[in-house]
Amino acid sequence: MTATMADVARLAGVSKKTVSNFFNGYPYMTAETRARIESAIETLNYRVNISARNLSSGRTGTIALAVPEVAHPYFAELAQAVVSVSQRHGLNVVIELTDGDHDRESALLRGDGGRYVDGLLFHPIALGPDDIESSTLDIPVVLIGDRVHGGRFDYVTVANVQGAAEMTRYLLQRGRRRIVALGMEDSDLPTAAALRYQGYRQALGEAGSDVDKVLTVGPIPWNRASGAKAIGELVNAGASFDAVFGFNDALALGAMNELQRRGYEVPGDLAVVGFDDVEEAALAFPPLTTLNSGRDWIAERAVERLAERLVSDELKPEVFVAAHALVTRSTA
Amino acid sequence: MTATMADVARLAGVSKKTVSNFFNGYPYMTAETRARIESAIETLNYRVNISARNLSSGRTGTIALAVPEVAHPYFAELAQAVVSVSQRHGLNVVIELTDGDHDRESALLRGDGGRYVDGLLFHPIALGPDDIESSTLDIPVVLIGDRVHGGRFDYVTVANVQGAAEMTRYLLQRGRRRIVALGMEDSDLPTAAALRYQGYRQALGEAGSDVDKVLTVGPIPWNRASGAKAIGELVNAGASFDAVFGFNDALALGAMNELQRRGYEVPGDLAVVGFDDVEEAALAFPPLTTLNSGRDWIAERAVERLAERLVSDELKPEVFVAAHALVTRSTA
DNA sequence: ATGAAAGCGCTAACAC
DNA sequence: GTGTTAGCGCTTTCAT
User: Fold this and answer.
1) What is the per-residue pLDDT for B150?
2) Per-residue b/e over A102-112, b at no fewer than 16 CB within 10 Å?
3) In angstroms, rounded to a whole number, what is the distance separating the alpha carbons of residues A232 and A224?
4) A274 and A220 in contact (C-beta within 8 Å)?
5) Neighbour tally for B160: CB within 10 Å
6) pLDDT at B23 > cutoff 90
7) Once rounded to an integer, what is the mean pLDDT over residues B78-98?
């Protein structure tokens, strides 16, 4: 019942190939032919069947973006950038939600859903390097994320250690001495939490300060609610501190919110800083000092790298590290 | 070079059909056969070619979600809910960004990209009822949004007029008399802006108050920056008011931020309320009083309705209006 | 600048 | 429970 290319060809009095040429922008065609085809398409209300094209051409024109969630501001802004760049490259993007779940992340690298995209942009958070190396997926994959990895896959990543060190140094320069590391993780795995914590320790070390374990707390997940909760508990426990370094903006914003609620002045009584520079950081009250971790560049680089891999399989794996920049606003 | 189902069948010593059965969860199969197939899949590292399945079955198992942008908290949370519900229904979601652009929204309803999804979930903001009625798309479409429309398509929508009236009444009850309508649009088109403004006027009318045009401003786009800017200009112009009703949370939050920056106390000097109840409303300082407009229900209802339409084409167009609820927090 | 024929890898209908 | 046969609607190659 739905019209096919053959129907269009018949009505226009040309061959299927010519209609196909029309849709694929093949330039050599008489205006006459073109007009007949256009009119046939119009009267039949014809649309190219992309499934047929995909089977025939061996490509889908679609990539998957796999993230833990998309409601989180960081991932929402990442997804926006990814989809937007992809559209410019003529690629569709399907969103896969992993929920940060180990099994769902593994399933992606096993290609459990079947072969339905040309490539995968993947921001894992539950998988370790070994899980990742053991992938059996046979389409191009570009990893995005906080971790520096550098195995069989391309990796587009944040300068976690340097960024966190820079932010910590900034606080130290401003005279802050007792800095809460909110979101830390003491692990050898290259997670964002561990790497940012490493940068924090490094900067303290340079300054000749010791890490006070009382001030290092690791709320999970990294959202406002857990930031608020963790800092509240720290205050309740009687900890003394003069700055809070949230390992992402949500943690920092949640903490700031809770501290204000308890009557502290920011930055008068306490400095609060974040990491990532999501949009809401600029619009908080007061506007949050944070670190731009290069999210848009990451999205663009990752899509472009994947697009290159779609075309060539000669590429050696590379690690791309985004530039970062301190964004000083009002909270420190 | 990539293995096909025929290769698997050959290696397992069964027919293609049996392998197909395996992948489609057909239950009647000896454990023996199943094991042979599994082992063949393993050794060949075989993945189902979804393009071939799609062509053959006439379905893609994918729907498109078309929104102006996905970085905006409202749409990010909507997308999260849509993708999550869709996954439960075994559907993939590709995100289409329209940027609120009239041409790009029209293109979607013309099916310009070809037939690549089974259905479309569409949140238009630039199209009028006429544009929408003139769609030539021949796949199921479910419209989402602020506007109550009710034409050839299903519509899942927010109770704009009632919600805005309820919020305005609430402010009046709390003794606020000069309420800024931030985001209003004086139009006959059923836009969110016009409908919420209509609710605002209605509540004022019930209370015997007149609308003071000075207090109705319509910043665009509906984000924090324009909310901040608009309220700043109002203050600069010397307007006197005791409450701000932001027609979405971003406007309200931006306005609150700007007012705090200028030294006003919220809610002491001024009440501020929003609309939508995005996550950040709860986490602002102070937490924003707003109206839950039923976003998650909308996502769920829309996906389910689309899923129903994928199966049956006997359905008459319906309008589904989400329940709303006042969420009283600290700002009014 | 356009046509003819083959085939992409699967599912569907029906047979056994 | 499993096999056989036909396509699904395009793109591709090669010809003209």
Assistant:
1) 66
2) eebbbebbebe
3) 12
4) no
5) 27
6) no
7) 96
Distant-in-sequence, close-in-space partners of A149: CB < 8 Å, separation ≥ 6: A129, A132, A143, A155, A157, A190, A319
Report which secondary-structure segment, H or E, holds B259: helix B249-261
**What is residue A246's three-state secondary structure?**
strand
The whole-angstrom distance between residue B187's C-alpha and the CA centroid of its chain comes to 22
In angstroms, the first-to-last Cα distance of chain A is: 66
CB of B16 lies under 7 Å from some atom of strand C = yes
Residue B211 DSSP one-character state: P
State residue B5 phi and psi, 5-degree precision. -65, -35
Distances (CA, A) of B110 to A38, A45, A52: 14, 9, 20
Distance, CA of A277 to CA of A294 (rounded, Å): 9
Residue A35 has pLDDT above 70, yes or no: yes
The reply to whether A53 touches chain B by the CB within 8 Å rule is yes
Please give the structure tokens belonging to residue B29: 């199969």
Provide the shortest C-alpha distance from residue B150 to chain A (in Å).
24
Tell me, what amino acid is at B81? A
Contact B299, B78 (CB under 8 A): yes
DSSP secondary structure of B55-74? HHHS--SEEEEEES-SSSHH
Q: Which of residues 111-140 of A touch B (CB under 8 A)?
A: 111, 113-116, 136, 138
Strands lying side by side in the sheet with B271-273:
B216-217, B179-182, B243-246, B271-273
Question: Pick from B50, B131, B62: which is nearest to B98 by CA?
Answer: B131
Identity of the amino acid at A200: Y
Q: For residue range A129-184, what is the model confidence (pLDDT) as tens digits? A: 889 999 999 999 999 987 766 689 999 999 999 999 999 999 999 999 999 999 99
B280 to chain A, minimum CA–CA distance in Å? 9
A145, containing H or E segment: strand A141-145
**Cα A211 to the center of its chain, rounded Å:** 30
CB contact under 8 A, A55 and B73: no
Mean pLDDT of B260-287: 92
Burial profile A255-280: b = 16 or more Cβ within 10 angstroms, e = fewer: bbbbbbeeebebbeebbbbbbbbbbb
pTM reported for the whole predicted model: 0.93
Phi, psi of A56 (to 5 degrees): -70, -40
Angle between helices B249-261 and B73-88 (to 10 degrees): 150
**What pLDDT was estimated at residue B148?**
65
C-alpha to C-alpha distance for B218 and A258, rounded to whole angstroms: 33
Total number of residues shown for chain A: 332
In the structure, how far is the CA atom of residue A15 from the C1' atom of nucleotide C2, in angstroms? 7
